[in-house]
């Protein structure tokens, strides 16, 4: 059984944080890369207070007049966020992500400080890799090759 913390190096590489008092245009700049879907919004103490997604930005931009959008991230962020902790089982987190149709979830520590983002594709790849390894072990056992 694999835990989320086994993927921390990749999760930390995708850590994308923005302050709750920063403008939405700054979040848009952070999320302009194709591989970035979500920024974690933190308060002054570094605690997660919500997330801003590309969808949130697009939804808000339709109300802005020209390029002078001064909306703050805190005004459009999603406050009720599904998160996970490093000590959780990856399979459980994957089930939650699948059930809620999430592309990624923030990984937070016990004080709700963001560690990074877990992407559904990475979770699925790790889980499939684990199953493939178990299959190889079982095949070797059945064929009397022994364990590796």
Automatic annotation (TrEMBL):
Pfam family, one: CBS
Residues in CBS domain copies: 7-71, 77-135
Database matches in Gene3D superfamilies: CBS-domain
Keywords assigned: CBS domain
Full protein name: CBS domain-containing protein
Source species of the chain: Aquamicrobium soli
